[in-house]
Amino acid sequence: MSQGQVTGCRYRLRFHTILLLTLLLALVVLVALPAIYRIVIRAGGGPNGRIGPFHGRDMKELFRFEQAMEAYRLQFGEYPPVPKPDKVIDHITRIDPKVRDPQAVLREAGLNLGELDGRESLVFWLSDRPGELFGWPPRVYGFDPRRLVDRDNDGWLEYTTRNGDYFGLVDGKVVIESRELGRSMTWDDIIREYTDH
């Protein structure tokens, strides 16, 4: 075997080892997250199934969104972008270089990128919509269609919690926009503030 062949074999072995370790780590994280969630809920959930001002079912859904974001990252190599037109277009063309003019595809569907906000961004990226428009793989998250709304009638859907708050994306993190608190909170924020951690 020549020196070049040996070097090539070593390179492939290292590459496959790193790939295997990455997949193993992702699997461990996905398996461990539900157990961590159960521990946290037991530690901080009150008798009425609430954690602070949040209903336990909304917390479960927020947790599932966290998992969906990880699944999205594993599938596409990065998290969904912030809802800015240039970031969205850049993200779409990185995922699928065959899409020549993403903005034209969105316009044809009646969607204006200038109107996309964090609430709508969560629904867009994790739903069936990109698959319908660009032919990508199926959705990452199954939204309850009864809680999908278009509050501002711009064609971009938002997703409500059971008490009328909204889920959204802020700086790449899934949040609950709480009317009661007057602010958005991530899973980590809620756990930090309302549980015995």
Tell me about this structure:
By secondary structure, this protein is an alpha+beta fold. The protein has one domain (about 5-195). The protein has 7 helices and 7 strands. The strands form 2 sheets. Strands 3-4-5-6-7 form a 5-stranded antiparallel sheet. β6 and β7 form a beta hairpin. The longest helix is centred in the first third of the chain and has 42 residues, at about 5-45. It starts with a helix and ends with a helix.
The structure class reads alpha+beta
Compute the number of structural domains.
Answer: 1
Write the element-wise H/E pattern from the N-terminal end onward. HEEHHHHHEEEEEH
Q: Rounded to an integer, what's the Rg over CA atoms?
A: 20 Å
The major beta sheet can be summarized as: 5 strands, antiparallel
Number of helices: 7
**Based on the structure, what is the oligomeric state of the protein chains?**
single chain
Summarize the structure.
This protein is an alpha+beta fold and 197 residues long.
Characteristic terms for this protein:
7 helices; flat; 5-stranded antiparallel sheet; 53% helix; alpha+beta; single chain; 197 residues; two-stranded antiparallel sheet
Q: Would you spell out the secondary-structure blueprint of this structure?
A:
Blueprint: H1 3-44, E1 50-51, E2 54-55, H2 56-76, H3 85-95, H4 102-108, H5 118-126, H6 129-134, E3 148-149, E4 158-160, E5 166-170, E6 173-178, E7 183-186, H7 187-194
Antiparallel strand pairs: 1-2, 3-4, 4-5, 5-6, 6-7
Helix pairs in contact: 1-2
